[in-house]
Every structure is written in structure tokens, then in C-alpha cells.
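Hello again,

I reread your note about wanting to compare the complex against the isolated chains. To keep things tidy I'm splitting this into two emails, and this first one only covers the full assembly. Below are the input lines as submitted, including protein chains and any nucleic acid or small-molecule components. They are followed by the predicted structure of everything together. The single-chain runs will come separately.
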Amino acid sequence: MNPVLPDEALEFGAAAAKAFAALGGVDAARRAEEDPATRGAEVAGALRALGTEDLDPRDGPEALAAAAALCEAAGRSALPYPVTGALLAGADGRPFAVVPDRAARVDHGDLFGEWRVARLGGRATVASRPDGARGLGSRLGPFVTDLVEAGQNGAGDADARGDVALHLALTACMVLGTVDRAVELAVDHVNGRIQFGKPIAAFQSVQFALADASVAVSGLRELAHYTLWRPTLVDSLALRVHALDVARSVLRTTQQLHGAAGVCDEYDISVLIRLAQPALRLPWGAERTAEELATAIGRDGFDGLFEHGGSAG
Amino acid sequence: MDFDLGDQATALRSRLRELIARHIAEDYLGAFTNDPADLDVAQRFCKLLADEGLLTIAWPTEYGGGGGSLWDQTVVREEMWAHHEPRGAQYMGLNWVGPAIMAHGSDEQKRRHLPAIAAGEVIWCQGFSEPEAGSDLAALRTKAVPDGDGWRIEGQKIWTSYAGMAQWCVLAARVGEGQRHEGITMFLVPMDTPGITVRPIRSMLGPHHLNEVFFDGVWAGPEAVLGGVGNGWAVIRKALAHERVGIARYARCERLLSALGRELAPHWDSLPASLRAQWARALVQVRVARLLAYRTVHAQATGELPDVLASAARIAVTQCDQAVAEVLAQALEDQALEAGTRAPLHGAVEDHWRYAQAATVASGTIEVQRMIVAKDLLGSSR
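Full-complex prediction:
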């Protein structure tokens, strides 16, 4: 029994965090919003320098843990790049995404000509970037792009199902990075912000709100590690629903504790929360994920101290 | 990364489940019900565990224990709590009174108390909280005044579990005029000493859980002092360290969610989607609580356990207990009001809901845990 990520993964995550800090942290996202081309230039370059092209999360627990550490680092700085999709690129080099039923909608979908996309059922198709495609340009999904699906690629359903599980798990690790960073930002803010003659951290309402947020992040981290140990579809769905629930509460709390600064893009918290939205809404939000989880538990069961669903149900 | 507790823990879990299945009825809801026969079940089961060498599996071998690992202890904690603690009131003696006597007791105290605790023959209660000293335990006022070669104890304790059935009390009292932690001294006092009065407090938890205990000129000899005069705070801290991981509430939560899933299975497709989703989320919350508890055990097993880890786990576990209570009750709708063996899940949902209401207060309030987490997080600004 050892719930801690392997040292190699932690070191890789630290190297990634350092590389993203060198890009300016959240400033890299601010620059990408000004000039989307910086994603393909400076961000992709930083990832190449880290050696992410040689990292395949399917290569076993160590590789998956390293990929998770990378995704967490990306989530901490709202890295403007589809890291999860790129990590799950197949032999054909196409990045991978799990997409909503309604449309092949992918964050940073405009960065690649072709994607391999799948839905929960696991059927993979190739989807292409339409000519001249650009992101939605909205404040919550500036780089979210609708792709056009070509049809089955014949890669086999089983492979795609495994990738769906990994994609959900790694995206949840990105969310983990975001909420962890949000708590750090809030801690810095409440320690520095003086009102009524003292740091607002001196108020117990502030302390308790942050304590609860911090416990929620710790719980999400443990669940992420557990899921990485054995990333089945049902466990990845469980991790996703929990990540989204934690994000909803922790991002709300940490933004509130920033006061008006929390909605200003000069402050990292605002950019972090805005640009986390695609990961929280694609391919589905928390409620839909919870429904899918309940169905999956009914079918496949849920590992624990006692039996749930599956054949027992 | 490896979340497998190992073959030894798995074998221990199977053995405990086998014994429980054979000796504890499926509808057993613990020793502290309105039916005195439930208490007898617990007493018999303790003897059985003692005979099987399982009651003190966590104790060091030099005190006749099994020398079990922290993970063995975790499995015992989970299986006992999941099955409504068929050890009854014994866990207090086993989990911390015994270990505190091992650490601080005289040879005579060890000889007198440890074999009785190990045999499951004696019930202990804990005289800590007072009307004016709850979360702020160091504010306790119960006094021990020197009298001859011993002490006269005067004061009142409250929320004392099992005081009405306990043979012994481990009591915190103040010696001298010291402030706060100074002068606090631990006494081991037989509950049949003249001057001790127990008054049960009616509560939604059911009988035996909460009592007031009055000490009116209670005599204690010098041999009653545990760990030295004025050294009580150190004993309490050490004692509480044994309880840092806390009750494995998540284990009962998971067992009840599993039972609920079976109960609802025939109607699964006609249930409101929101209810199915709540059930699934509750299972995830239970898993998270268990993993945070495991993180704590892992830290303990590999070195130091920082306060913040233990407090985070307690917050998650106690909130999980209450959240699951609500999900179970929502699922049963109006039947959640029913108690007794003919109620759904043998009344376990009604029982769990009542008991869960105290989860964020018992053994240290959630507010105190939040203060510990916030202190770690915010440093000097708070």
C-alpha cells in the first residue's frame, strides 16, 4: 500500500511546472488569447523540450503517473494547449478527444488538422478541422472548436474505450492542478489583503472556507492517485464527477475570497477559472457524468470494501 | 503507487467477516439499543475475539497482543464499524486506555488492567469533557485535592459514553491552582467508588451513549494516578494520538450503500435519475473518505503523522457519514422514519441517520479540525 505518486512522476511534474513557469505561468494563456498562434509556437515547443512526445500514458502505471503529473502542472497555469489529447495521440499521430454526443467539440481543436474522437461507447472516428476554423472566441471557451467527423476509422472499439477512460482521468488531473493552484492563490490573497486593520485571513469565516477547500483538494488528489493505479472506465467516471464537484465548490470559494479581484483578468484566479471551463463542460458536465457513472456502476460494479452494482446489483 | 492492502490484511478481513457472519445477526445494530440482549451479543463476541487472538491484534506482543501492523488495525476498525461495532464499548479500552497504560502506567497498573482489557472483560469510560470544557479541554475544572496519601475528587463530567455500564473511568482532573495544561492529572478510578453518580442524558443517539458523571468527594489513592501528577496533558495527547485516524465511519456508509443498492435493484430503472446520481456520488465520497484515512495511516506507518493530515481525514470522514445518511434517507423516502427489524434494511438507515448527526461533534468537533487545517494552510496570518 503506497498512495504516493512515484518519484519519477513527481520529478517530471516539477520539471513541467518549471517549464510552464518559464513561459510566464498564466501569462502564457493571456498571450494565447491575444495571439492564438503562440500555442503552436512557444507552448508546443516547451512540451517538446520536456519530451512529452515520447510519453505514452498507455505504457503502464509509471508512464500514466508521469502523464498525470504533467496534466496537473498544465492545469495549474491554464496552459493553452490540449495536453491530454496530445498525450493520447495514436500511432497515426492524431490527438485524441472524448466529445459530446451533439458535436465533435474539442478545446484547442483548431491546433490540429485531424483528431481521433470518441464518445462514451468507445467508437472512434476521425474528425477534421474545417477550413478556416477558429475557436468559439468566447471568454469561457476561446479555443473550443467544432470539428467535422468523417466516419469510423476502424481502429477498434476496445482501444478507444481504454483511451476514453485515460482521457477522462488525465483531464481530471488537469482540474486537480487548477483547484490546487486556486487554493494557493486564495491563501496568498487573504494573507496579503488587509481590511479592518488585519489580513482577512484572520477571520474565521475565511479560514474555514479555505480549510474546506483544501480538504476537498486533498481528497481529489487521493482519488486521482487511486484511479491512476487502475484506470477503468467506471473509476475514471468517478474521478471526473468528483473533480467537477470539487471544482465547482473550490473555484467558487477561492474566487469569492479574492473579492472583486476574483473577476479581473489581471489576477490569475480569474483567468484560471475562465479557462478551466472547457475541461469542466467537455465532453459533459457534472450532472451528466454522475448519471453515466450510476449507469456504469449498475453494469460494471464499483470497487470497494463491499459489492456494488455489477453482477451483485 | 499501490492501493492493495496486502495478503495479510485481506486474510484478516475474510476471517473477521466469517466470524461476524457466524456470530452476529444480519440485523444487529450494535450493543446500545433498547434491547439489553444486544449488549450480551457484544460481550460474547468480545470473548470470542479474545479467544481467537483477534481482540488485541493491534497490541504489542510483549503485552500479549498480536503485534499487528497499522493496516491490520485499519482492517479491524473497518470491519467492526461496518458491522455495527460488535465489540460494543470495548474499543475504548482496546484502542487507547490500554495503550495509554502501556505507555504511562506503573507495573501494578499494567498487571491489574491490561489482562482484563485484553480479555474483553471490562468496560472503560473516559472522563474528559465537562460542561465548561468541550473543544477547549484544557479549561477543565474538576479538582483533585490532596487528602492523606491520596486525593479527593470534586467535579462534573459530561457526554461520557458508557458511564452507566463502565467498571472503570480514566479521569482528567486538575491538581493545584495551575492554569490551562498545568496540573492536569489522569486518574484510574473504579466507577463503584462512593461519591460517583451517573445520570443518563436522553439523546437521539439512543441509550448509553451520553451521560453526566458527578464526582462528589470521590477518594482516589496514590496508585490511581496514571503517568505522574501534573503530567495529564501529555498522557491525553499521547492517548489521542492513538485515536487520530478516528472511527472508520466510511466502512459502515459503504456497507449500507451496498445494501441499499441491492434493495433498490428491482426498481433501479424507475428511480429518479437524481437519486441514482446521488447514490453514485455517495459511493465516490465514501471512497475519497477511505483514501484520506489511508493516507493518514500511510503517513503513520512510514514516519510522522502531521496533524493536518489527520484533521483533513476526519473532516472528510465525518461529512461523508452525514452525507450518506441523507442519501440513504432520501432513497427510502417516508420509510426512512421506520425503526426496528421490519423497517427497510432492518432499521439500519434510521439508526445511521440518528447516529450520524453527532459525527461532526464526537471526539473533537469539525470546527476544531478546520482550525488545525487552516493553521497549517495560512501560517502566521491567522
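For quick reference: The two ends of chain A are 29 Å apart (CA to CA).

B.
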